[in-house]
Design brief:
The structure holds three protein chains of three kinds. Chain B is an all-alpha fold. Chain B is built from 13 helices and one strand. Chain B has one domain: MetI-like (MetI-like fold, Orthogonal Bundle), CATH 1.10.3720.10. In chain B, helix 4 packs antiparallel against helix 10. Chain C has two domains: 209 residues, Periplasmic binding protein-like II (D-Maltodextrin-Binding Protein, domain 2, 3-Layer(aba) Sandwich), CATH 3.40.190; 201 residues, 3-Layer(aba) Sandwich (D-Maltodextrin-Binding Protein, domain 2). By secondary structure, chain C is α/β, with parallel strands linked by helices. The chains are: A mainly alpha, B mainly alpha, C alpha/beta. At the A-B interface, strand 1, helix 1, helix 3, helix 4 and helix 5 of A face helix 1, helix 4, strand 1, helix 5 and helix 6 of B. Strand 1 of chain A pairs parallel with strand 1 of chain B.
């Protein structure tokens, strides 16, 4: 929280964002939540069913297993995306020869759309011409070569790996900017005290970054919960339903099945789960700070 | 030894990161059948057919201009709403500040696909469906939460004594915002701009739905016409990716310079 | 090229279209073309015939001609690529802003237009299409039936397809295996091909894939198409011995004989990887794929008839054939008397014999229109042979067409799992029964 005394003029600074957010997010979002109480195909008269859609969702095994998958996805995203980005950013905190190049290079995948990235990995995972199998064969692990996206034992992991690879650069940029905002004196002082790289990292870098790391963790978790393109382009939820996640199920329910009430109920549940996860992360990191 | 390890890791990650990009670039010069039967980083021959075919299939220059102008309007709208809000949350002491934060965070938790039917209805009701820049309202709104998140974090790192000093010096709130906080938040603003730019530039589904008129369509939508119901031409698709990414990459490199300048200024002061 | 600027056109295609219109003047004279409208207005035309779609150029030419003849009407084209067109039309329907004219799939539940039509958003064209001389003898009853739902005709046929079963002679020759002629030789051929290290089936078995086409054939051959449709719409029990037998035959024919990535690969990628590379022996697909096969490969391709099955209900070698796309009009715009004549005129032009001739010759599409003088050499040997075969036998209806979307989204992954060998025939049929509630 800031230190300046509040005065009415501050509201003027907040007003434009509130108006924008109210009309173009809260309004449609409110109508979406409201729609989840109805059975509606988008055209005919909507029939009020109360919490009926939610009751039905409780019995929907596909939707439930979807959450288990996306939970794994979110955990991997936080650990690997944020973890690797943090290490890379720490390595480049001090400018070294070539750091401009590395900074630019790490960010490149982020500028490509997730649909295009997914298309690319479809080919990289290809059993015959894919890079992954070619690399495995080259290092004598040809026995592990397989049809990654067609094999129900590997498809989910293969899918999850793609967004991790894709957005490490995103978190890298955030964490690099944040690290360079840490006062240099802290590091200087530590060096004078004879602290090594590991100690500086755990005692200065990480504690100073807790607020930003919280944001990163929230972003990684919510991105996992909301991700649609990767699954949709690479597997469409298959083989069978092995990579089906809540958002793809919701998309099909709304846009293919035209069950808008049922689909928006799914959306609401996804929202609630994301909200709980976010609050939990904030609670955890706040705990870590004190 | 330590330096060798450092460079080894950095180089490995850079290669891992850049490889697919080179691969797309190479494929942009190859035929779809060749792409699906062999993997190479160097095309058999440089053939511009994919690019030419793409230009004939869809109006790239117009779509490019639409993307540029719509993204610019969205970013202007985003910055003019998110920066003042972040300023209020980060620098003032009031009980609601924390809640305002959480309130705006709600939108991060909602998948865009789920709200799309209702957004479409709203646009229809407001008569925004035929317009070109209406979609900027949605883009700015979508980016608002993350941007505020980041800006607040950056602004909180600015020493609080500055505020008091400025106000004692007789600065108004407007001066404090424009002359003190804004310049010192430059790193944060540039980061927000880059990230929002990427998200807006690459958006497909929202643009597809909210910009029905073919005159207004953006680059990512125009490029999607490289596929149809039964056919995907991977060569053309790669050419499309190159078209979409190249301008972004250039802009990013330019903006990197800005960050570096901002950083240097901070160092001098420090 | 920009569609909104006809002067930038002037391509060979457009000249061809104009020439075609002149050649067919007698037909044009019969249709009652309306005079210029009293008030200028905008007509919305929504389509996925855009980008690389083979129909894009021809339809663009027809729209340009319409614009030239009616300069007071602004035709606003709303293009959406591929299947995203479904999302677009559904959203338009939910906001009550249906386009004036649009192309769309059939009225089958799987594509969602049936609900939109039943909600009164799609114009009922029954009386007009019956009365207008432009449509007399233009399509057969089977096509009109497909354009009709609950006794109301909503669409005018645009293009059609049939399923073709193809064999690459070169692969059979390489393995020293004879090209199959009946069920037994087909079963032994896939085994012999595999033993020789060849790929028996160049197919995908994912959602809505070529694997589903084989399912259709085997089930239809076993229980007959009408009964298959009843079973898949919950009107008749599906967990019956005949279905288990069909599933067993399907397993024997397909499981283990497809590419390693058959369940994850897209239908179109199958052509680049396994057909055009000359690797796959057998393929089965809609007629729209013939133009995507390379000429060198096409030379060694033969069209086969899918064999009759021992003890099966079907005694003729029926082929699945249907419309893929029709022209529709929005109900609200069509109710506006000032617009109606121009909507009708545009649809008349889009479905005329001249237009259909271009769909066939320039876009290489199969057309439902009768009495069109098509230069058949433009189709090529394989397409023509498949066409002759398809038109000489009774038609099968696509089984998933009777599925509700929510059933289809369960049915397709299940079929994919079965074709990868995850379920026994008995378990598969039992699961089908839970999907169809029988």
């Amino acid at each position: 929280m800031g230190t300046l005394r509040f005065r009415p003029a501050v509201l003027l600074f907040m007003l434009p964002a509130f108006v924008l957010y109210g009309v173009f997010f809260l309004l449609p979002f409110g109508r979406t939540v409201l729609a989840s109480l109805y059975e509606w195909n988008g055209m005919d008269e909507a029939v009020f069913v109360g919490l009926g859609n939610y009751a039905e969702l409780g019995r929907d095994a596909l939707f439930r297993t979807g959450f288990a998958r996306v939970g794994l996805w979110a955990a991997a995203a936080v650990l690997l995306k944020v973890g690797i980005a943090l290490l890379l950013a720490s390595a480049l905190r001090e400018r070294i020869a070539g750091s401009r190049f590395f900074e630019a290079a790490f960010f490149v995948p982020v500028v490509i759309s997730s649909a295009a990235i997914s298309l690319l990995f479809t080919l990289l995972y290809d059993p015959d011409i894919g890079l992954l199998n070619a690399a495995l064969r080259a290092i004598g692990l040809g026995d592990y070569a397989r049809a990654w996206l067609a094999d129900r034992n590997t498809a989910l992991y293969a899918v999850i790996a793609v967004p991790i690879w894709h957005t490490i650069g995103y978190f890298f940029v955030i964490l690099l900017a944040a690290q360079r905002d840490i006062p240099r004196e802290l590091y200087e002082a530590a060096r004078i005290d004879g602290a090594g790289a590991r100690v500086t990292f755990t005692h200065i870098t990480v504690p100073s970054l807790v607020p930003v790391l919280t944001v990163c963790a929230v972003l990684a978790v919510t991105a996992a919960l909301k991700s649609f393109d990767y699954v949709f382009v690479m597997t469409r939820g298959g083989p069978g339903t092995a990579t089906e996640v809540p958002v793809t199920t919701m998309y099909k329910t709304i846009f293919v099945n035209l069950q808008i009430g049922y689909g928006t109920a799914m959306a609401t549940i996804i929202f609630v789960v994301a909200l709980v996860a976010t609050l939990a992360i904030r609670r955890l990191t706040r705990f870590g700070r004190t | 030894m330590r330096r060798v390890l450092l460079y080894g890791v950095l180089t490995a990650h850079a290669l891992l990161t850049l490889f697919p990009f080179l691969w797309v670039l190479s494929n942009a010069f190859r035929e779809s059948d060749a792409i699906l039967t062999s993997l190479t980083l160097w095309p058999e021959h440089f053939d511009g057919a994919n690019f030419i075919h793409l230009m004939q299939t869809t109006n790239i220059p117009r779509a490019f201009w639409n993307s540029v102008s719509i993204t610019a309007v969205s970013l202007a709208l985003l910055i003019s709403t998110s920066v003042p809000l972040a300023f209020a949350i980060a620098r003032f002491r009031f009980r609601l500040a924390e809640y305002v934060y959480v309130f705006f965070a709600l939108a991060v938790l909602v998948p865009a696909v789920s709200v799309l039917p209702m957004t479409f209805r709203l646009f229809n009701d407001l008569g925004l469906l035929g317009t070109k820049y209406g979609i900027a309202l949605i883009y700015a709104t979508e980016q608002l939460p993350i941007s505020v998140f980041l800006l607040v974090t950056f602004m909180r790192a600015i020493p609080h004594e500055l505020d008091e000093a400025a106000l004692i010096d007789g600065c108004g709130l407007g001066d404090l915002f424009l002359r003190v906080i804004l310049p010192l938040s430059r790193n944060g603003i540039v980061t927000v701009l880059i990230l929002a730019f990427v998200a807006i530039w690459n958006d497909y589904l929202t643009a597809l739905v909210l910009l029905p008129d073919q005159q207004n369509r953006t680059l990512s939508v125009a490029l999607a016409f490289a596929k149809d119901e039964y056919r995907v031409d991977y060569g053309m698709m790669s050419a499309a990716i190159v078209f979409a990414v190249a301008p972004m990459l250039l802009l990013y490199l330019v903006l990197k310079e800005r960050i570096a300048t901002g950083m240097a200024a901070g160092a001098v002061k420090g | 090229m920009d569609i909104q600027q006809p002067q930038s056109g002037g391509t060979a295609t457009r000249r061809a279209v104009i020439a075609g219109a002149f050649a067919a003047l007698p037909f044009a004279a019969r249709a009652a073309a309306p005079p210029a409208p009293a008030q200028p207005f905008t007509l919305r035309f929504a389509t996925n015939y855009a980008g690389v779609h083979p129909m894009a150029k021809v339809v663009r030419g027809l729209i340009d001609d319409f614009r030239k003849d009616y300069p007071a009407i602004t035709v606003a084209i709303e293009e959406t690529p591929g299947n995203d067109h479904q999302t677009k039309i559904k959203l338009d329907a939910s906001s009550d802003r249906m386009p004036d004219v649009f192309n769309y799939w059939r009225l089958d539940p799987g594509f969602g237009l049936d609900q939109i039509a039943r909600a009164g958003k799609v114009a009922d064209l029954t009386e007009w299409t019956k009365a207008d001389p432009a449509f007399q003898n233009l399509f057969d009853d089977y096509s009109w039936k497909t354009a009709t739902l609950d006794g109301k005709t909503y669409g005018v046929p645009a293009i059609m397809f049939y399923v073709e079963f193809l064999a690459n002679r070169a692969v059979f020759a390489r393995a020293g295996v004879p090209v199959p002629t009946d069920w037994d030789s087909l079963l032994s051929a896939v085994r012999a091909l595999k033993a020789k290290g060849e790929l028996p089936w160049a197919i995908s078995i994912g959602n809505d894939s070529q694997g589903g086409r084989i399912y259709n054939y085997v089930v239809n051959r076993t229980v007959g198409n009408p009964r298959a449709l009843r079973m898949h719409s919950g009107q008749e029990p599906i967990n019956v011995p005949e279905m288990v037998r069909a599933a067993t035959m399907l397993r024997d024919l397909v499981v283990g004989f497809t590419p390693a990535d058959a369940i994850s690969i897209n239908n179109d990628a199958v052509y680049a990887k396994y057909v055009n590379s000359g690797r796959g022996a057998l393929m089965i697909d809609g007629s729209w794929v013939t133009p995507t096969i390379k000429p060198e490969v096409l030379e060694s391709i033969d069209v086969l008839a899918f064999p009759l099955l021992p003890g099966g209900a079907q005694t003729e070698r029926n082929v699945e054939r249907d419309l893929t796309s029709l022209w529709y009009a929005g109900a609200k715009p069509m109710a506006d008397a000032a617009r109606r004549p121009y909507i009708q005129e545009l649809i008349r032009r889009l479905s005329s014999r001249e237009a259909e001739k271009h769909y066939a010759e320039d876009a290489k599409q199969q057309i439902p229109a009768l009495g069109v003088n098509v230069d058949e050499s433009k189709y090529g040997r394989v397409a023509l042979a498949a066409q002759t075969m398809a038109l000489s036998v009774p038609a099968n209806k696509w089984i998933p067409s009777v599925l509700k979307p929510s059933q289809r989204s369960k049915f397709e992954p299940l079929l994919g799992e079965f074709l990868s060998g995850d379920h026994t025939p008995e378990a598969f049929v039992a699961r089908l029964a839970t999907i169809f509630g029988t």
